[in-house]
Amino acid sequence: MKKYLLILVLFISLAQVAEGQGCSVCTKTAAGMDDKSARGLNGGIIYLAFLPLVLMGSIGFAWWRYGRNSGASGK
């Protein structure tokens, strides 16, 4: 199980390196916009990031809660 977790973490870290260049493109695009358009771009980024963050947070909370409950009953 630890082997699969290590492989998953490795793939996630490599994917972030490949997508890191998108931030510079967004910065250059937002720099050429007026204030209202830049706020719209930032709002869209937050809107798109909301669902994955909620899913990861829910899974992490459930994992933490399950680990805490199973650790207390094992003693």
Descriptive notes:
The protein is an all-alpha fold and 75 residues long. The chain folds into 2 domains: 1-32, no CATH class; 35-75. Helices cover 91% and strands 0% of the residues. The chain contains 3 helices and no strands. It has helices at 2-19, 21-31, 35-73. The protein is elongated, with a radius of gyration of 19 Å. The two termini are 23 Å apart. 0% of the residues are buried. The model has no long low-confidence stretch (mean pLDDT 79).
Question: Count of helical segments?
Answer: 3
Strand percentage: under 5%
Counted beta strands: 0
The Cα radius of gyration reads 19 Å
Quaternary organization: single chain
**Main β sheet profile:** none
Low-confidence stretches: none
**Which class of secondary structure composition applies to the elements?**
mainly alpha
The residue fraction in helices comes out at over 70%
Q: What average pLDDT do the residues reach? A: 79
Structural shape? elongated
What is the distance, rounded to the nearest whole angstrom, between the alpha carbons of the first and last residues?
Answer: 23 Å
Instruction: Please tell me the total number of domains.
Output: 2
H-E string: HHH
SSE map:
Layout: H1 2-19, H2 21-31, H3 35-73
Short description:
This protein is mostly helical and 75 residues long.
Labels describing this entry:
single chain; 75 residues; mainly alpha; 2 domains; 3 helices
